[in-house]
Amino acid sequence: MVEKNFVNVFILGGGFMLIFTSFQTLGNIEQTIIDSIKTDLPSFTGDGYTSLAIIYAALSLSNWVTPSVLSAIGPRLAMTIGAITYCLFMASFFLPSVVLLYGCSVVLGAGAALIWTGQGMYLSQCSNTDTISRNSGVFWAMLQLSMFFGNLLVFFTFQGKTHIDERTRNIVFSVLIVVGIAGLVLLACLRHPATDRDSPVEVTPAVRPREAFLNAVRLFRTKRMLLLCITFVYTGLSLSFFSGVYGSSIGFTNAIGTSAKQFVGLNGVFIGVGEVLGGVAFGLLGTKTTGRCGRDPIVIVGGVLHLASYFLIYLNLPNAAPFGNTDAVSYIQPPSAVAAMACSFLLGLGDACFNTQCYSMLGGVFKNEPAEAFSIFKFTQSVAAAASFVYSSYCGLHVQLIILVVLGILGTVSFCLVEFAVKRERPALEREYEK
Questions:
Q1: Host H or E run for residue 287
Q2: Gene3D superfamilies under this entry (predicted)?
Q3: Which tens digits make up the pLDDT trace of 85-120?
């Protein structure tokens, strides 16, 4: 039984790795691709940042209704339907149309809520109190491997190109869709999890969705959750920055050289290296790393890494970089590709610090209300990501970096305040347990 569930976790991680190899790669290059489409097809007025904003807005709203859907169809079918929406979104780029792009963005947002809520439920069903940390770490590490393969394809395909022509775009889209379909097949093949006494309590279809919503509203209003929401907002802002804005900014900076577009893909690879290293260090080894000194030192490290990367990005890339091809430069002249890739690694590693500890906090401190806590996390993060993609179309790079610095500091402090409170409560709980 244990082996069967562990195999289920590997299949789950493999499916997500393939699907997000496609989607994260496309998200990383979407604005760059759309800029090239506009050059070839002037009548096309779509915007990559707007598309991503719509996706995260739809995801945030859908998070409140997906529990009802999952109670009716279950997590496996929900993940399969969600995976289909990812494939449809990628296929829409073969027919450049503003209506199709934004319409598929809405559909994908709803599908993303299904696939992520289904993932959380299915992973819980495949785990017990002894294996949840291990299974979460394995899934996280496999998911972050998605940053490598698609971005390596982009790195070699975009080599030496200052304009991404239609043939090159179609090759990339075709490969990404095939990989996404392979992930869809894996998720469709997921088996029923084996259950035991430690398995989570099953959702009651007739009652649970309404109760979960009311409990989530109540939990959202508590002081502890409001403080954590500041951290969640920051993770959403940083996610949108390194997954959509930063890579495009590198590709649009002409002073990097003729290989600027090529570095868009390599940027994703280095983010992935940081994510995987962080996932392994703080996910798979989470018990050892957090048991001795708590979660706050890891989050502080993540905050420092991000602040360092923002400062280096400020020095390296021009303010106009997010908007399109530019000959402008910043303080480092010419811009350094090595520094840009170093920042990519720091962004990935810092993100792993924040996310692994947020998951640990939600799964530990709110273990009696995990569904409500995680729904608030995804809702808040998605709203912030959507807002970030909206202002990314209007605010220069340096203004965006200032916003990230301020929220990064506030998010780190607010997380630490909650962790300090949890540490103070722990001895009392242990004494009560001993009685």
A1: helix 286-293
A2: MFS general substrate transporter like domains (1.20.1250.20)
A3: 999 999 998 888 899 999 999 999 999 988 988 887
Question: 170, 281 in Cβ contact below 8 A?
Answer: no
Distances (CA, A) of 390 to 51, 162, 259: 9, 26, 28
Instruction: Kindly state the tokens that stand for 306.
Output: 């991000």
Q: What is the DSSP letter of 333?
A: S
Please name the amino acid found at residue 316. N
Kindly calculate the radius of gyration of the chain based on its CA atoms and give it in whole angstroms: 21
CA distances from 393 to 29, 45, 92, 244, 398 (A): 15, 13, 22, 11, 13
Least Cα distance to 7 among 119, 139, 120 occurs for 139
Q: Which pTM was predicted?
A: 0.78
Q: How far apart are CA 332 and CA 411, in angstroms?
A: 29
The crossing angle, in degrees rounded to 10, of helices 370-391 and 223-240 is 40
pLDDT tens profile 217-276: 788 889 999 999 999 999 999 988 988 789 889 988 988 887 787 788 788 889 989 988
3 state DSSP class of 77:
helix
Are 152 and 265 a contacting pair, CB within 8 Å? Answer: yes
Residue 26 in contact with residue 208, Cβ under 8 Å?
A: no
Residue carrying structure tokens 């073969």? 94
Residue 285 has phi, psi (to 5 degrees) of: -105, 25
Distance CA 413, CA 32 (A): 35
Q: Which residues of 329-350 are buried (b: 16+ CB within 10 A; e: fewer)?
A: bbeeeebbbebbbbbbbbbbbb
Q: Give the number of other CB atoms < 10 A from CB of residue 210.
A: 11
The owner of tokens 């993609």 is: 389
Handedness of CA 416, 419, 425, 431 (dihedral sign): negative
User: Token pair of 374, please?
Assistant: 């995680």
Cα–Cα dist 92/216, whole Å: 35
pLDDT for res 258: 76
